[in-house]
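User: Can you predict the 3D structure for this chain?
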Amino acid sequence: MFFIDLEPDINNPEIFKLSLLCYSKIKVEAPRPRKDIPQCLRCQSYGHTRAYFNHHPRCVRCGDLHDSTSCQKDQSQPATCALCGGPHPANYKGCSVHKELNKNRKLSPTNPWHKNAPNHQASSSTQEPQINTLVEFPPLPQNTHNNSHKTIKESPNVPNNTTDQLTSFITEFRSLINPLISLLTSLIEKLISNNGRK
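Assistant: Here is the predicted structure, written as structure tokens:
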């Protein structure tokens, strides 16, 4: 089995039509996504890989704070899990930590927008909708035309904190960017003049 990674191109789907290659019958398939949780080969934890982790290593066989390649534990002795302390290596798929993570992963919805979706199970008891009275929820205040007009007139006089912050940011940004632009301009002019001499 071989893995071929293609650069994005219009004719990439043509590779799936191949059936013979160098007089050999072949079958080209799209890569299958991994369904397992990634496990770090450095610290043995789940959810990241060693390429993105730089903390202390933990051994897959004994669970101590050293790299798995430098483990001094005898092969005849049972392994000790770095995650749960059980009598198995840390990459054992039957580990209670791995099982719990997989269970939680299957329970969580794949689309976070579905968290508030209604439950489609039929309820055994019929409930009447709760009716709130005016005592619990008093009526909203009625704004008159004059009151709403007053608030519109008064709002421009109130200092706007967001506007002040943006003005301050733009001023500070200008003070930083102007010296950089002049420095880049002089550098480009020097490069052009040096190329003209050659």
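The two ends are 55 Å apart (CA to CA). The longest strand covers residues 20-21.
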